[in-house]
Amino acid sequence: xxxxxxxxxxxxxSVIFSHVTFLQVNDKAPFEHEFFQQxxxxxPFLKQLNVLNINRQSSILTILNSNDNLLYSIVKYLYLMSxxxxxxxxxxxxxxxxxxxxxxPRLTTLVVNCLKKVEEVLIRDQLYVIYSESKTLLRDERHQxxxxxxxxxxxxxxxxxxxxxxxxxxxxxxxxxxxxxxxxTAINDPKLYIETILDIHKKYLTLVQNVFTLFDFMINYFxxxxxxxxxxxxxxxxxAGSTTKSPELLARYCDILLRKGNKGVEETDLEEKFNxxxxxxxxxxxxxxxxxxxxxxxxxxxxxQLSASDDYEESMISKLKQACGYEYTSKLQRMFQDxxxxxxxxxxxxxxxxxxxxxxxxxxxxxxxxSNSWPxxxxxxxxxxxxxxTYQMVVLLLFNKALNWTVExxxxxxxxxxxxxxxxxxxxxxxxxxxxxxxxxxxLDEDLKDTDxxxxxxxxxxxxxxxxxxxxxxxxxxxxxxxxxxxxxxxxINDDRxxxxxxxxxxIMKARQTLKHALLMxxxxxQLSSRFKPNIPVIKKCIDIxxxxxxxxxxxxxxxxxxxxx
Length: 566
What we know:
This protein has about 575 residues and is of the alpha/beta class. Helix content is about 55%, strand content about 10%.
């Protein structure tokens, strides 16, 4: 009994060849669907099939080019393991590759020259299934399988665009869901908020680098879009009612890292933390908001001598300068220069006192600050600052009656609202003027919040109070005062933005002389997008202001065209 048949034509007797495992067929007439059915019936244990033909199937069978093959039974080769179609007509290649026409459950080797047809049948026609499966792979974090899938889809022109959008949407949804889980705490905890964002970014940056960048660098753009969307608009910003909450919390996180007494981060890790901050900063749309909050907090650190290190301060400013240019950081650098000048003046003054024997003058230090660089508003009247607030004094006067009080008794005695009283006690406990036996020292130095103080806690006066600090700041702002300060910052930001928009409009119109209203707004948005995203109603209002100031005018014959007035 023979096992191989070579060169058989498409006309052979209806006999079962149960021992034949290798078959090569050559066409004498065009192969038809029935011919492949006949092979499956006559060679039930066939393991290898070579098809050699140059003639297409009859025109009647062109309907088989669709996946709807209800007119014909499916041909099944139950044991076929190797199929060679290197010299087969495209009709017959399609015949074998389309599972609605042929089933090859054990096929392990396929050799074919018609690669485009293979891609069309196995990839392009299955894209809907592939896209659906990619969502499952992303959700289950099956990164190796995802890499193989992306590599496969990359063979079809433009097919990866939809896959990139799926990745973008997945990252955005995961970012929103992750932030939503911590939003209740994160809105008042800059460290938690920013580190949550950075963890999401790190996770998906690793995914991109390991899976996609090998095949398509444009995927980075889709990752940028996803991160920018969830960083600038998420449950925290929605709860705050402002898209500027992200840059504010980012500036506050910087303040935490750059202040003295930051025990949560080793000095060797700070530079890496700054690099991570710049990653988040690059996604922030309202960079001018970050600048305002950062400058105010920098001013407090410099004036209060609260900076952990001048080198770290300069390093952070240098990174901001690289990202946004000299103008963005010019005031921050001048603030540093003022502090340097002040540090030089004080020793010179001390030397002057010694030379002139001015012994009767009390020791003091000064800071000479340029008014245009520092975010301090000059008071209209000179009022000597009080040493502590009225609330703090009311609390401390209680200890003239007794040295120990519970929080609840203090509230009953003073009738200060409990929420406000906890804030006052928090500041006095942090300064260690008061001591709470229910709170240990480590908790007091690091993670204590005013809401952690309970009504049954016992508070006593520190009768043996000592401090290593030369000055103690008891005037810690209450949340209500701090909120007013934040509102003031936002008002300043809005006023500054109007001036920046007007300046941009004048620059553009001076260069163009005449320009349509819509094109002018488009150019303004494009010019300012690196600093913040200007609102269209504000741009329109600024145009109207410049028309009133006679910088611009509308063309008499076309009100939609603006003209610059020299």
